[in-house]
Each structure stands twice: as structure tokens, then as C-alpha cells.
Design brief:
Elements (H helix, E strand, L loop, with lengths): L1 H18 L5 E7 L11 H21 L5 E7 L5 E6 L1 H8 L4 E6 L4 E2 L4 H4 L6 H4 L11 E6 L43 E6 L2 H6 L17 H10 L4 E5 L2 E6 L7 E6 L8 H14 L3 E4 L1 E2 L13 H11 L3 E5 L18 E6 L3 E2 L1 E6 L4 E5 L13 E5 L14 H5 L9 H4 L3 E6 L1 H4 L5 H10 L4 E6 L17 E4 L2 H13 L1 E3 L5 E4 L2 E4 L6 E2 L5 E2 L24 E4 L3 E4 L15 E4 L2 H18 L5 H10 L12 E3 L6 E3 L2 H4 L6 H4 L4 E2 L4 H9 L6 H8 L17 E8 L1 E10 L5 E8 L4 E6 L2 E4 L4 E10 L7 E9 L4 E12 L1
Parallel strand pairs: 6-10, 6-11, 7-10, 11-13, 13-14, 14-27, 18-19, 19-20, 20-21, 26-30, 33-40
Antiparallel strand pairs: 1-3, 1-4, 2-3, 5-12, 8-9, 15-25, 16-17, 16-24, 18-24, 22-23, 28-29, 30-31, 32-34, 34-38, 35-37, 35-39, 36-38, 39-40
Helix pairs in contact: 7-15, 8-9
InterPro entries: Peptidase_S8/S53_dom, Peptidase_S8/S53_dom_sf, Peptidase_S8_Asp-AS, Peptidase_S8_His-AS, Peptidase_S8_Ser-AS, Peptidase_S8_subtilisin-rel, Peptidases_S8_3, S8pro/Inhibitor_I9
Keywords: Glycoprotein, Hydrolase, Protease, Secreted, Serine protease, Signal
Main location: secreted
């Protein structure tokens, strides 16, 4: 009996201890002391790197309990720190340790997810000036922190007949090998490839069949992004045997450096920061980040997170950093690109659409979406229409609920005798909204039952849905509008006979699916995409407003054709395909990365801030109708007027950006002054994050020399300065004028000036409130040169009080 009691007590204690055992998380730790200078091959740098590595290990061993942690990465090049997998109580011990400046919980990292060279007028513009697409971007290396790359894709092939003209003496990379990524993958076009997985392996149990521990891209996202920025020119896009045209990257001769940090199962900031650390060490010119944190940091300022500080130090090292603004639109202050030292990119459409049509037997023609060929005979031959609910097996033992039946997810639930060679009507219902139903399953159902075609219609109970063109391997069409769906269903019921129980006995409705793969180049563009995250920028998780314009710039990110990985680990609809048509700020970001590479090739001595300024001040705020850019909102139908908080400075204009006339430079010391001028700023926090003292703060945060002026609380009158530099080859005279935001008055001094090549000029801008406003209003300063240069500086002002 006593033994039994002891056993029960032991079990109780074990359960109690197990219930209260702390769950481990990943923490990012920033330490005192400098990182390695950017001379990776010097003996001094190697010695210092070994010293930092040893100091990280010693700190962990002396501070944390043995067996309570696992170090993931040591950060030695951009920042001095490490990432560790441990418990919250051990993280507290780290925070209290001498020499530890910041301990931040990993927030995880996510992806932000052809025709565009023509849309942006590159072939006859900057490409022509740089020797055509066979030379555009040569000598520039773009680094991609993403899900890896598909090295066998023709967008990344090396052509020995057209060797690269410029060597890469400034770049030192490495080719890490592994599953599906042999050493030959680094072929001259792909000049470096690394993978970072310690964070992923700590955060989740990886799937060996998908989460390859190599730079290979099992997802497709990284390949897509890389080919948009730097994919080879003129690569044929063929999907399901149909030729959609030829794809080219923005800078088709730029070299690609791959830093895989996102896996199909998981992504962590620990791996992303390690990837950024190595990319800058290797010597990339441009860093494209279509991945990143999906929310602001909780316990520090957005600008002082480990991620943003890593980007600051990348900028200090001379790297142009491009970051996705995020896909949390259209809500306000939804951007996840916060800092003035990285370029946050919003997404828009182009004027290319893929329309499709549905022909009904009563003569009605309805518009829809679907990248598929027509049903046999197209509109001239009509086929029987069957509603999925009317094709359920009557005597079967189907386990599927009616919702899944009407969504055509399971061919076993439908009677093949009823649906054979018919067009089936599927409903966009609960399964699609909760994420359990997919278009891929509909396609599989169609193949299994040998259907003539499929129609996915909106459900009146759920309203309209957003339809993106999906490559159907069968004839298919999406009808996202409820009113159109009602037309189809009304016609269907009129032509269908039912018995007393409501069971369909005769199907008289007929239809045909039209061609959906031929592009139409009509309509308004650019239009800011619904999903694209909006400003105003924020300082902290409480959404305190920041005096920084975000997003910075607008670029095509809606329905973009680019390279893909046939494994397509997370997109079953795209499995087996070499190309994908995707939307997201992930797709907009590499457009700007590639354009930055073109500018860098044309102006090799320009700093990142000069490139950023040129991109912003030469952009356009007008669409192809000559009207102000519009935006998609919460409502699916209709467009809304947009502001710089939707499109930043405007749509990127690469052909003007290579010759902007004037630029507004700002460098590392200016960013420190900016941080020190933030309201209620803890100067110790800045010292901890950057190692810099606040000796020269600005009077206001908006004093930072950005190519825009944003103030979130203008009271009375304030004077702010902008400094411009002439990057042209000739002396030029500029006339300064202002379009003031509502409720304000803008005075400029001087109103005109003459500036010589490489000369600088200070421009005093006095902003005065003449009427308080309830929300931000917008204007711009325009500097018009006598040699046809036009420089635009966006104004975003919340006028609080006179």
C-alpha cells in the first residue's frame, strides 16, 4: 500500500512539474561591443570574429542553466549578438546580465506575396541606355533573403555565348550545397547561395521532404521574387501548354545571391537576421526583402527592433535595402516597413487583365476570371449544367457535409453518371472562408469525373469574393459577383425539373466557358491593390504616429508572372508549374530592387540614399487616364481616391530615376540624429541598439533629409530644411514652388537657385497652420529645372492648431 502511495505521489509530482514546465521560444540578443568591420578576408577581422563567437558562448554558459538553451546563430558582421532557443525565465536572466543591451522575442517571419518591363517602359528607356537587355544590370549583385531558389529554372541559367562583362571584385560569396542543390547550381548567374535553418529547426519539426536544408526553393516564392528583379531576359512563359509571352527581370544581367531563411513549415527572424548579416558581409549591392516580421515589435520602438537595426547597419555598409510594405491593407497604419533607412514598397496593378466569359443557353454572357482554355466548341457548343448539390450520390455513404459537396472538394461524393462531360457549378461557401477548401481540389474533382468544365460562383450568403486568375488545367471560370451568380442559378432552376422531394430529374440548362488566357490591356492603372499595407507609419505597437512617409514608393505587385518551383510546397494549384501569376507586396519589392540595380549600374558611385531619393522624387502620382492614382478599399466594388499613405511618393519611374537632376542625401549619422529626436526617446535605448550617443539630435524628427516631409502634429508654424545635391553634368537653375496641404501655408526660401554639378543647396520650408484639420492632408514641393529636370518632394501634414 505504501509503495502504491509513493507511486501515485510521484505521478502527481511528475504531472505537476510537466504542466508548469516552461515552453521554449527564440530570443534575439544584442550585446555591447562592435561587430566585425567589413573586411572579411583580413586577419584582424577573422580574429575579432572568433573573439565574438567565444564571448557569445561564454556569456551563455555563465548565465543560463546547463541544458536550458540552444544557441542558434552568432551575429558578428552587422551587429554583435546572437539568437538563442530558451525559456522565458532564462531570457530574464539574460536581460539582467552585464553587457546585454537588448533581448527581444522572435516574432517569426513571413512572405509578403513579364509584362512589367513594358509597363514601366524599360526596353526603350534605361535598358537602351545600358546596351539593351543583354547588359542591363551587369556588375551589380542583388541579394535575396527568401525561401531559396530553383537553380534549374531558365530565368537563372547562364549563357556562355553571352558572358558577363563585369567581374565582381567587390563580392565574396559562397555556394552551400545540399538536397537538390549541387555545386553546379552556382553557375555565374547565381553567384552565391547560402541557407540558414537553426531558427526554423528550433521553432518547428521540419518536414524532410519539403524543408530542404539547402538553398533549394521548395516553395516557389524566392524563385518568383528573384526572377522579377534579375531573371534572364526573354524567357518563354508556358503554363498548361499555353504560351503567355516572355518574362524578363527588371535588371536581367544583374547577378543573384541567395540567402534562404524561410521554409515551407516555418520562418524565424533569427534566420532572417543571420541571412542579412551574411549578405552584407558578402558584399551585395542591393538587398531585397520580400519577407519580414508581420507585426511591430511589442516591447520596444519599431525603429529599434533587432531586425530594423540590422537594416540600419546594412545601409551604413552601403547596401540599398528594399522591403515589402506588407499585405495587411487596406487598413490604416498597417505597414510593416517602418524605418527611413529602408525603402518600403506598396503594390499596384498594371493595365493587363485576363478576362474570361461564361456563355449561358439563354443568351446571357457573364464576365469572370480564369486562366483556362475554352470548353470544347467554346460559345458555339453548349454543355449540360449541373449544380454540385444536385449531383450528390443518393445511396452512397459519403462522410462529407453539404458545404463540402457544394464546393466540389470530393469527387467521391458526386454521381459520375450525372456529371460526366457536363459543366459543374461549385459554390464559394464556408470551406473557402475557413481555408479548408481549395481551387486545386475543384480541379482534381473535374479531372477525376471527366467534367467538361467547372464554374465557381459567389454565394449570396457570403457576398462577393476577390478572384485572382488561377491556371486551370481544365476549362474553368470564377464568377466572384453575387449578382452574376444569381443570374446563373436562376437560369439553372428555370431549366431544371425536380420531383416532389426536390431532387433534380432533368437538366436542361446549358453553358460554355470561353477563352480566359488571352490578356487584355485596358482599364485604369496603376491602382493601389487592396491588400497593400497603408501608412501612416508608426513608432510603436500602440500606433503612435511617426514623422516618416511610409510606404516609400509604389510598384507593380498584382498578377505578376515569374519563375516558380514545381514542388510548390504550399500552393497545390501551382504544383508542377515552372511559372506562377502571383500578387503581393512581395512581387512589388523586387521591381524596385531591380530598378535600383539599374540605377547603380548607371551611377556606380551613388550611395543608397541618393538612389532612394532619385526613385522617390521622379515618381508619378497619376494613372494612365491622367488622373490621380486610385486605390482599392474594403469594398470589392469601386475605387477610392488615394494618398501618399497608399502609394508613397508615387509609381516608380525608372527612366527618370537614372537622371533625377537633384537628390536629397542622408547618411548613417543623420539616421542617428533622427532617432535621437523622436518624442520621449530614451537615449540609453539608442545607445544600446546602435552604440551611438545622442550628441547631435535634430530639432524635429522630420528634419531628416528625406525626399518627403511628414509631420503628424503641426502646431503654429515650423521651419524645416532640405538639402539637395546636383547629380547632373551641367549647371542648372531651379524654380521652387509649393502645392500646400489643406489647412496649411507653405513658404520656400529661396524661390529659385542655380546649382553647379556636385554642388549643394539648402531649401528652407516654412509650414504654417491656417486652419486645423481632423486628418492628414497632402501637397508637394516642385523644383523645376531649366534643363527639364523636375524634382517632387511629397508633403504629408496633420495640421493640429493655429
Amino acid at each position: 500500500m505504501g509503495s502504491l502511495s509513493i507511486f501515485i505521489i510521484s505521478i502527481f509530482l511528475f504531472i505537476s512539474i510537466s504542466c508548469y514546465e516552461e515552453e521554449r521560444s527564440i530570443y534575439l540578443v544584442l550585446l555591447d561591443g562592435d561587430a566585425v568591420a567589413f573586411h572579411p578576408n583580413s586577419e584582424a577581422s577573422k580574429v575579432h570574429a572568433k573573439h565574438l563567437l567565444a564571448s557569445h558562448d561564454l556569456l551563455l554558459q555563465s548565465t543560463l542553466e546547463r541544458g536550458s538553451y540552444n544557441k542558434l546563430h552568432s551575429y558578428k558582421h552587422l551587429i554583435n549578438g546572437f539568437s538563442v532557443h530558451t525559456t522565458p525565465s532564462q531570457a530574464v536572466r539574460l536581460r539582467r546580465s552585464r553587457g546585454v543591451k537588448l533581448v527581444e522575442k522572435d516574432r517569426g517571419a513571413k512572405k509578403m506575396t513579364t509584362y512589367t518591363p513594358e509597363f514601366l517602359r524599360l526596353p526603350k528607356g534605361i535598358w537602351a541606355q545600358e546596351g539593351g537587355d543583354k547588359n542591363a544590370g551587369d556588375g551589380v549583385v542583388i541579394g535575396f533573403v527568401d525561401s531559396g531558389i530553383n537553380p534549374l529554372h531558365p530565368s537563372f541559367a547562364y549563357d556562355p555565348i553571352h558572358p558577363f562583362k563585369t567581374n565582381l571584385s567587390h563580392f565574396v560569396g559562397a555556394c552551400e550545397t545540399g538536397p537538390l542543390f549541387p555545386a553546379t547550381s552556382c553557375n555565374g548567374k547565381i553567384v552565391s547561395a547560402r541557407y540558414f535553418s537553426a531558427g526554423a529547426e528550433a521553432a518547428a519539426t521540419l518536414n524532410a521532404s519539403l524543408d530542404f536544408l539547402s538553398p533549394f526553393d521548395a516553395d516557389g516564392h524566392g524563385s518568383h521574387v528573384a526572377s522579377v528583379a534579375a531573371g534572364n531576359a526573354g524567357v518563354p512563359v508556358v503554363v498548361n501548354g499555353f504560351f503567355y509571352g516572355r518574362a524578363s527581370g527588371m535588371a536581367p544581367r544583374a547577378r543573384i545571391a541567395v540567402y534562404k531563411a524561410i521554409y515551407p513549415s516555418v520562418g524565424t527572424l533569427a534566420d532572417v537576421i543571420a541571412a542579412i548579416d551574411h549578405a552584407v558581409l558578402d558584399g551585395v549591392d542591393v538587398l531585397a526583402l520580400s519577407v519580414g516580421p508581420n507585426e511591430p515589435v511589442k516591447d520596444t520602438l519599431t525603429f529599434l527592433s533587432m531586425f530594423d537595426i540590422a537594416l540600419l547597419f546594412a545601409r551604413r555598409a552601403g547596401v540599398f535595402v528594399v522591403q515589402a510594405a506588407g499585405n495587411k491593407g487596406p487598413g490604416s497604419s498597417s505597414v510593416v516597413s517602418f524605418s527611413p533607412w529602408s525603402i518600403g514598397v506598396a503594390a499596384c496593378n498594371t493595365d493587363r487583365k485576363y478576362p474570361s466569359s461564361l456563355f449561358l443557353g439563354n443568351g446571357r454572357i457573364l464576365n469572370g476570371v480564369g486562366l483556362s482554355g475554352p470548353t470544347f466548341g467554346s460559345g458555339s457548343v453548349l454543355h449540360k449544367l449541373v449544380l454540385a448539390k444536385d449531383a450528390v450520390k443518393i445511396n452512397g455513404t459519403s462522410p462529407w457535409t453539404p458545404e463540402y459537396v457544394e464546393e466540389c472538394q470530393h469527387p467521391e461524393a458526386l454521381d459520375p453518371n450525372i456529371v460526366l462531360e457536363s459543366i459543374i457549378i461549385c459554390n464559394f461557401s464556408g470551406g473557402f472562408y475557413n481555408g479548408t477548401s481549395t481551387v486545386a481540389a475543384i480541379i482534381n474533382t473535374s479531372k477525376a469525373l471527366r467534367l467538361e468544365g467547372v464554374i465557381l460562383v459567389a454565394n449570396p450568403s457570403y457576398g462577393d469574393f476577390v478572384a485572382e486568375p488561377v491556371p486551370f488545367a481544365v476549362s474553368g471560370i470564377l464568377i466572384p459577383n453575387v449578382d452574376d451568380a444569381k443570374v446563373i442559378l436562376q437560369y439553372y432552376e428555370e431549366q431544371t425539373k425536380r420531383d416532389k422531394r426536390g431532387t433534380a430529374t432533368e437538366f436542361g440548362a446549358v453553358a460554355a466557358v470561353g477563352e480566359g488566357r488571352v490578356a487584355s490591356f485596358k482599364g485604369r492603372s496603376p491602382v493601389v491593390s487592396r491588400f497593400s499595407s497603408r501608412g501612416p507609419d508608426i513608432i510603436d505597437i500602440n500606433k503612435t504616429l511617426a514623422d516618416v512617409l511610409k510606404p516609400d514608393i509604389l510598384a507593380p505587385g498584382h498578377q505578376i508572372w515569374a519563375a516558380w518551383s514545381p514542388i510548390s510546397a504550399l500552393e497545390p494549384t501551382l504544383k508542377g508549374y515552372d511559372f506562377a501569376l502571383l500578387s503581393g507586396t512581395s512581387m512589388a519589392t523586387p521591381h524596385v530592387a531591380g530598378i535600383a540595380a539599374l540605377i547603380k549600374q548607371y551611377n556606380p558611385l551613388w550611395t543608397p540614399s541618393m538612389i532612394a531619393s532619385a526613385i522617390s522624387t521622379t515618381s508619378s502620382k497619376y494613372d494612365n487616364f491622367g488622373e490621380n492614382i486610385m486605390a482599392e478599399g474594403f469594398e470589392i466594388k469601386g475605387l477610392l481616391p488615394s494618398t501618399p499613405f497608399e502609394y508613397g511618393a508615387g509609381l516608380v519611374n525608372p527612366n527618370c530615376a537614372i537622371d533625377p537632376g537633384l537628390v536629397l542625401p542622408s547618411e548613417y549619422v543623420d539616421f542617428i540624429s533622427f532617432l535621437c529626436s523622436l518624442p520621449n526617446m530614451d537615449t540609453d535605448a539608442i545607445m544600446a541598439a546602435t552604440g551611438e550617443s545622442c550628441n547631435h539630435p535634430f530639432s524635429f524628427p522630420f528634419s531628416l533629409n528625406l525626399p518627403s516631409v511628414t509631420t503628424s502634429a503641426l502646431r503654429g508654424s515650423v521651419s524645416v530644411q532640405r538639402t539637395v545635391m546636383n547629380v547632373g553634368n551641367n549647371t542648372e537653375t531651379y524654380l521652387a514652388s509649393a502645392l500646400p496641404p489643406n489647412g496649411t501655408k507653405v513658404d520656400l526660401y529661396p524661390t529659385w537657385f542655380t546649382i553647379s554639378p556636385q554642388g549643394t543647396q539648402n531649401l528652407e520650408i516654412q509650414l504654417s497652420v491656417i486652419q486645423p484639420m481632423k486628418s492628414f492632408s497632402f501637397g508637394e514641393i516642385v523644383l523645376t529645372g531649366n534643363l527639364n529636370h523636375i524634382v517632387r518632394i511629397t508633403l504629408s501634414v496633420l495640421a493640429v492648431s493655429v
